[in-house]
Amino acid sequence: MNYTKGEWEILEGDEDFIIIDESGNTLCLVPFYKEGEANAHLIAAAVNACQSVNQDNPMAVAESIKDMYEALKALIFQFAVAVDDVRSKDKEVYEQANEALAKAEGGGNENTPRS
What confidence score (pLDDT) does residue 87 get? Predict the structure, then answer.
């Protein structure tokens, strides 16, 4: 299966939000309605994020996000037990993972492990 590569963007048309590729080709129309703009941004952001991980197969990323999220939560929980006794580089990696998880959950930079 082939996917449209490159950054997807959103334009506001007369009756729809228009999702375009980096060449300006129309990929999707999202009608104006209460959540229309938010949904258009969600579609473009999801595709762009998946392509940033695997440009050749963004669907593989999309289908594995829940598994990656759960694995990261488990790793952070296990790592939190030993984080005070590890080298500073390991602490940096732990903090980076914890901040990424907090961002995904809609929070800020928290230093508490999630379970």
Answer: 63
Pair 115, 73: CB distance under 8 Å: yes
- Asked whether 7 and 48 are in contact (CB, 8 A), the reply is yes
**Distance from CA of residue 61 to its chain's centroid?**
10
CA distance linking residue 90 with residue 70, whole number of Å: 20
Q: In what order do the strands lie in the sheet with 26-31?
A: 9-12, 16-20, 26-31
| pLDDT > 90? residue 115 | no
For residues 23 and 6, the answer to whether their CB atoms sit within 8 Å is yes
Strand 9-12 and strand 16-20: pairing? Answer: antiparallel
Under 8 Å between Cβ of 27 and 43:
no
Give the Cβ contact number of residue 64 at 10 Å. Answer: 14
